[in-house]
Design a protein that fits this description.
InterPro entries: Cyt_P450, Cyt_P450_CS, Cyt_P450_E_grp-I, Cyt_P450_sf
Cofactor: heme
Helix content: 40-55%
Membrane topology: Single-pass membrane protein
Number of domains: 2
Main location: membrane
Strand content: 5-15%
Strand order of the largest sheet: 1-2-8-5-3
Transmembrane segments: 14-32, 306-327
CATH class of the largest domain: Mainly Alpha
Structural class: alpha+beta
Length: 502
Amino acid sequence: MQVWSFTSYSRMEMISVCVIIGVVLGVSLLVFRRLNELWYSVKLGGRAYKSLPPGDLGWPVIGSSFSSYKTFMVQEDPISFIQSLHSRYGEGGIYKTHLYGKPTVIATDPEICRRIYLDEAKFKQHNPESVKILEGSSGDFSKMDHKIAYKVVATPMNGSEVLSNYVDFIEEVIAKGLEEWSSMLREPIKLLDEIGSLFFKVITKVFLGSRLDAKTMVELHALYKELSFAMVMSTFPYDFPGFTFHQAFKARKKIENIIQGVVEEKRSRRFENDKTSEVQCQVDKMVVAIDENGEKLYNNNLIRDLLLRVLFAGHSTPAIAAFWALLHISQNPHVFQKAKEEQESIIRQRPSNKKGLTLNEIKQMKYLTKVINEVLRRNTITPTNFREAKTDVNINGYFIPKGWTIQIWNIAVHMDPQIYSNPQEFNPSRWENYTPKPGTFIPFGLGSRFCPGSELARLEITILLHHFILNYKMEGVNLESYITQMPSPRPENCLCKIIRLS
């Protein structure tokens, strides 16, 4: 007969208790994790909840925010996040989740994305908290009619007649910049920062004219870089001392003061000269604009708030696209050679008494246009755009409740192998005799929110590539540096040398 000792019995009892505790904790955690699901099931009603897109609302309050943070801040390829959705919930192109305290729908299908972009009756613009850094302190811009604001911003940056006025200036700025970079052979340059500095000169010229001295220009650009850093690092967008967001607001205030000074100076000059001085830039036009009653159309605060955003967007995203363009052509010799042959052919056809690019010559750069299209596809500068449902909406049989956030994943569209074969490959030739279907190429968005600076951005990138391809090459120091995805995919600290060719 076997005799159980007190010690052996106690050990088995303890194991049993641990198992029971483990099971209870596991069930509790499972129930706790499903609280978001239970809450929205009760709030929306069973039938409506079952009609939501497939997906996972995640943990209470935080939802799937950590997964999103990991995707954009830790991993190098956000497409992995989309691939995980496809593998778990099918390739329907629309999914539910819960991000940063809000129920969210993720859209990756081209037709769904296109519908959301274009249907302004049901979807409105919705920016993340970090983007609120760029909202002016007066609040006048947010109250301005979108169509009027878009026209004010887009007018000086679109159309052949308008753009032709900038070609000489842009070419001068870029040629001088490349020459300066090539003279700095002892120390490598931060290429993205240098391109951003050049493009910042262009956008300030367009909107502010030539009123900023070199020192103020450098200070203003540095302040904008602080804002960009805050948009990347503001995991907790709280305006309290010690938070990155708070530092960003301080930088924004300094920017506002600089811009306000320029606007007030221009208005006073117009008044002192009896409004007869020559209109030179967009601010000049805005300070003299009047409505049908003869009243000022734009007050100083509104102009300042508008410029706050325009100067940021007008140099930041084009600079990132230009960086990727230089990197791709430098790493793909066959692309570089084909582009160079086209540029040399254009130069050979130029009259001997003509110096400098013309808009007509730029329009002849068919292959370079394909290169830029491929850059904008392969390295989508705005990976996602945000909307909010203004009312209950049904899309492809799925229910989207009023007030839910919608993330339009432009990058998922551009990296879809069903649309672009071998999407990871940089291949400008894919654009030969190819016209993308509506909604399948959306680097600048769609609809009334289409990027107003798209034509100016393409012009800047084209002129930079023209001069680089003909006269320079890149030697990388750490071109494989860490890539961050927020707010746009770019290297953290890419250093290189620009070498002038003999």
